[in-house]
Amino acid sequence: MSNAEVAPAALACGSAADGDRSAGEPRVEVLSARDVPLGGPRALLVRRTLPQRARTLIGAWCFADHYGPADAGATGMDVPPHPHTGLQTVSWLFSGEIEHRDTLGTHALVRPGELNLMTGGHGIAHSEVSTPDTEILHGVQLWVALPEEHRNAPRDFQHHAPAPVRIDGAELKVFLGSLAGSTSPVRTFTPLLGAEITLEPRVTVTLSVDPAFEHGLLVDSGDVHLIGTALRPAELGYVPSGADTLTLVNDSDAPARTILLGGPPFEEEIVMWWNFIGRSHEDVVRAREEWQAGSDRFGEVEGRPGLRLPAPALPNAVIAPRGNPRRR
Length: 328
Ligand code: MN
What we know:
By secondary structure, the chain is mainly β. It contains two helices and 26 strands.
């Protein structure tokens, strides 16, 4: 997916009520979503929780869009070829189907419950179009920042359909990293966790997690509490590193669906602009120029000849690198 935003508005993060949080338990920071149209006359509206002023990254996760359920007949997805640098894209659907083409030569169908991880280190371009059979489009689009030593990695594409794992009170699909004894075979450049967790109605589930990781729980549906803090759908609950368990409660009479993200804190500062990640303003200026010039750095998406998404104009000011706010 492409970031259609040119000048993202900054929003203050929501404040978390302490709820039934016990003394000594980590404080959950509630990151609220803001609506961003993906572009085009029949724009698909996405709910973006990362990045925002209060938080740039959770582990190496640096971008989180939640969208749908949307009537694909009215607002399908049709994103023409556009570039990426310095990051990996994770496409994860709850319903619908998206046809993916990239300049590695990949032609793949993105389907519910199947991970598609594209690496756009030095440079890649791709297009994403919902298929004609898609009635309801519903899912998440996530980005992972590449660490300095791998940020110019060659183009790559990995697919994995994790077998659902049942634990007491929940079903898990672990698409990256390890959780509840289930491990994804997908290679990453920093340790990561990515899993879909569906909670049964009226349950409390406690998960063991790596205390070196910070975590984010994105709620798709249900009345979910994370370590005692209520999260509404489309909100992302952030838990700093140090926790070795996460307690999730579904307080509704229907199943609750969530996405759990994690990773050790990403210590590097990054420059993120449009669909590029670099380390300096000059990095994104160069990437933009090379995309506009049709450079080999990004290649040609077969099957979508002539079409390409032009880069927006650069801001007048120099884009400053950003990391996470200092710990209070
Ligand atoms: Mn994209």
